[in-house]
Structure formats: structure tokens, C-alpha cells
UniProtKB/TrEMBL annotation:
Residues 349-429 form the Adenylosuccinate lyase C-terminal domain. It catalyses: N(6)-(1,2-dicarboxyethyl)-AMP = fumarate + AMP; (2S)-2-[5-amino-1-(5-phospho-beta-D-ribosyl)imidazole-4-carboxamido]succinate = 5-amino-1-(5-phospho-beta-D-ribosyl)imidazole-4-carboxamide + fumarate. It comes from Geotoga petraea. CDD domains: Adenylsuccinate_lyase_1. Keywords: Lyase, Purine biosynthesis. The lineage of its organism: Bacteria, Thermotogati, Thermotogota, Thermotogae, Petrotogales. GO terms for biological process: 'de novo' AMP biosynthetic process; 'de novo' IMP biosynthetic process. SMART domains: ADSL_C. This is Adenylosuccinate lyase. PANTHER family: ADENYLOSUCCINATE LYASE.
Length: 429
């Protein structure tokens, strides 16, 4: 991930030094398990811990020669060891260390992402409650439909993110698995008991069954959840982007003091956070493809997945964290123009009340077909002549013969559209 979108603390998890630290932690956990079972002399793990030195430059220097990162790591950290070095990596294969280390890294990163998602959910909850009765135009096909509550609109995003939290929590539990079962996963040179002891020290559990690697459907599930969260954020960003258009301007992204929107046009305030979120959601969705491709490997394993994971695991977790952090800032500082939302009704000449008139006529005994034709005729006139829809309703004898002026006024009441909002909130919360 490029520096621009890499935020601590998730970024710090994926440095090369941290990777080697995870590898060393795994190796030591195995030696500690050996000691507990009397396979290695007491104090072996202590000696290894004291003498093992992670020198990134030295390890990379060795890798230039051996062309194998795990072998380079083993040679580098054991250079100053004595007899205890023979217990280091004993019975293990490279994937034991690498896959278990991926699990530790993903566990740490996902835990941070869960916390960010929880904070974002709180932000959505706040804006939903604050604007519970804020009237706005609902749209379908991008066209004015009927009045609704802006808080209710935000509640849909809140509900989606709560579902995503449940999904992410499940995926988080799913990735907390490692494997220390040897070259093809048959425990020929290391026992299931040692694996369980060592993984327990690392906060992991053994994979139910593995080949030489942890099955990659486990990773793919996490990527799928990231893609779902990203798509939810994209949906929110797209909503805000539309509502920030000059001709709409019901919402605006926060615009900091000193911020500039365009190098050429000083008046511009652009929805850059939302556009960035939409772009990053594309990346998250794209990462699911290689994650699914990584499930299919030759026999007990090949390493076609390895090069992919060096990129998509760190990048996906950093993108996810970045998107959530920016989304929290966006919602906490979103400019909501209530007056502009009310003015928007006039732009479609109050045609958003057409169904109320339709149902009013049906309620007076007219057929649905006749009622629809009468209302549509008046609605089209209002649109073509750019006049208030209500004027046409009040001057149509086919309507006024059945409804009084007061009854017509009631059809244009906004309270009607918010009458069940409390019930929806009560059900949700």
C-alpha cells in the first residue's frame, strides 16, 4: 500500500521487521512446547530468545544467496546460537511458520478494524437519531418519489454496518487458526499435541485439517466481508456525492479551513472523501478475486498464492482501516442542510404528494384506474407548466367534487409520511 493511504497502527503490523518478529515468536512457541513435553532440554527456549537477533539487512543479504525467505530468516536469527539451534524449526516446514504468522497478523489487523467499525457504527447511530424527523425527499431511479426522514435514510446504512460487524466478527474468529503439522500436513515430524500447545501460546487454535497450508477459503471469507463493508461505504459515499451536487446541495462533506477544491477554480468544494471511498471500495472488491483464486492450489500446495498474499493481505487490511477512519470523520462532520431539503420539494412542484391524492380519491369511492388517470393528468401539467401540483388539484372539479379544500390540504401534510418513523426506530433499537 502506498504511504498516502497507510495509517498506523495497521500499517505497522506489516513491516518486514514485524513479519520476522512473528516468525520468531512462532518458532519459540514450538520450542517451549518441546520443553513442556521433554523433547528439548529445559531452558532451550530461553537461550533462543536471548540469542536470536533480528537483523533485517542481514536476513535479506542471506536471502540474496539462498533465494528463500524462511531459510534466510532461520540462518540469520540462529547465527549466534549454540546447540539450542537444532531445536529451532525442528519438524516444521516453511508454511507452518508463514501461514501461522499470517493468522497472527490478520488477527491483529482485523481486531483494529473491528474497533474502527464499532466507532463508525456509533457515528451512524448518532446521525440517525439526530435527524430522525428531518424531512427530505426520497428518490427512486434518481427521481423524486415521496417524502421521508433523513434519519431513516441513515438508519439503512447503520443497519447494514451492524450486519457487517456480525460478519466481520465471525470472520475474525475464523482466521484465528494456524498449522504446525509439517511438510504435507500429516504430523510425521511434529505431533498434534505440540501444535496445540504452541498455537495456544499464540492465541490461535489448530486448523481443523490442513495440507501443507492453512486452507485459503478461510482467508477468502475475510476478504469477502471486507468487500461487503467497502460496498456499504461506497453506497453511503455515492448517496452523499449525489446530494452534494450543486443543483441538489442538501449535504456537504466537511471542508477544512485552508482547504482548496480545485487548482483552477477557487469556488470548488468537491466530495473528495466520498470519491476516494468509492475508488477504494473497487480495490477491496477486486481483492476478493485473487483471494478466491488462492483456494485452488496443486495437491498439498504450490506457492502461486504466496506472491498474491504479500500484496493483498496487507493492502486490504490497510485500505479497510483507512476507509473506516475517513468515514467516521465524514459522518461526524457532515453538513446537513435541512432548509435546502425542504426547498427541494418545490423543484418537482410538490409532485411527491401524488400518491396521497391518488389514495384520497380511491378512498372516496373512485376506481383506482380513474383515480390514477386524473392524478397523472394533473401531475404532468404541473411538470410541463412548472407550477405547484396542488394548484391543479384544487382547480380540478373531478377532485373537488369529492374532497373539500381542507381534505386536500391534509393530503399535502408531511406529518403523514413520518407517522411510523418512531415505530421503525423502536423496532431497530
Amino acid at each position: 500500500m502506498i504511504e498516502r493511504y497507510s495509517l498506523s497502527p495497521v500499517r505497522d503490523i506489516w513491516t518486514l521487521e514485524k513479519q520476522y518478529e512473528r516468525w520468531l515468536k512462532i518458532e519459540i512457541a514450538v520450542v517451549e512446547a518441546f520443553e513442556e513435553k521433554g523433547i528439548a532440554p529445559e531452558g532451550t527456549a530461553k537461550k533462543i530468545r536471548e540469542k536470536a537477533k533480528i537483523n533485517v539487512e542481514r536476513i535479506l543479504e542471506i536471502e540474496e544467496e539462498v533465494d528463500h525467505d524462511v531459510i534466510a530468516f532461520i540462518k540469520g536469527v540462529t547465527e549466534n546460537m549454540g546447540d539450542e539451534a537444532r531445536y529451532f524449526h525442528m519438524g516444521l516446514t516453511s508454511s507452518d511458520v508463514v501461514d501461522t504468522a499470517w493468522a497472527i497478523g490478520m488477527k491483529e489487523a482485523t481486531k483494529m478494524i473491528l474497533e474502527e467499525l464499532k466507532s463508525f457504527i456509533k457515528s451512524l447511530e448518532n446521525i440517525s437519531l439526530k435527524h430522525k424527523k428531518t424531512l427530505t425527499v426520497g428518490r427512486s431511479h434518481g427521481v423524486h418519489a415521496e417524502p421521508t426522514s433523513f434519519g431513516l435514510k441513515m438508519l439503512t446504512f447503520l443497519a447494514e454496518m451492524k450486519r457487517n460487524y456480525t460478519r466481520l466478527k465471525r470472520a475474525y474468529e475464523g482466521i484465528k487458526v494456524g498449522k504446525l503439522s509439517g511438510a504435507v500436513g500429516n504430523y510425521a515430524n511434529i505431533s498434534p499435541e505440540i501444535e496445540k500447545l504452541a498455537l495456544n501460546k499464540l492465541g490461535l487454535r489448530p486448523t481443523e485439517i490442513s495440507t501443507q497450508i492453512v486452507p485459503r477459503d478461510i482467508h477468502a471469507e475475510l476478504f469477502s466481508v471486507f468487500a461487503l463493508i467497502g460496498s456499504g461505504l461506497d453506497r453511503l459515499a455515492t448517496e452523499i456525492r449525489h446530494l452534494q451536487k450543486t443543483e441538489v446541495l442538501e449535504l456537504q462533506e466537511p471542508f477544512k479551513k485552508g482547504q482548496r477544491g480545485s487548482s483552477a477554480m477557487p469556488h470548488k468544494k468537491n466530495p473528495i472523501i466520498c470519491e476516494r471511498l468509492s475508488g477504494m471500495a473497487r480495490l477491496l472488491r477486486s481483492y476478493t478475486i485473487p483471494a478466491y483464486e488462492n483456494i485452488v492450489l496443486w495437491h498439498e500446495r504450490d506457492i502461486s498464492h504466496s506472491s498474491v498474499e504479500r500484496v493483498n493481505i496487507p493492502d486490504a487490511t490497510m485500505i479497510m482501516f483507512y476507509m473506516l477512519e475517513k468515514s467516521i470523520y465524514l459522518i461526524d462532520n457532515l453538513v446537513v442542510d435541512k432548509e435546502r431539503m425542504l426547498e427541494t420539494f418545490k423543484r418537482s412542484y410538490n409532485l411527491v404528494y401524488s400518491q396521497r391524492v391518488l389514495l384520497g380519491l380511491i378512498g372516496k369511492g373512485l376506481s383506482r384506474e380513474d383515480s390514477y388517470k386524473i392524478v397523472q393528468e394533473n401531475a404532468l401539467k404541473a411538470w410541463e407548466e412548472k407550477k405547484d401540483f396542488k394548484l391543479f388539484i384544487n382547480s380540478d372539479k373531478r377532485i373537488t367534487d369529492h374532497m373539500s379544500e381542507k381534505e386536500i390540504d391534509e393530503l399535502f401534510s408531511n406529518e403523514y409520511f413520518l407517522k411510523n418513523v418512531d415505530e421503525v426506530y423502536k423496532r431497530f433499537f
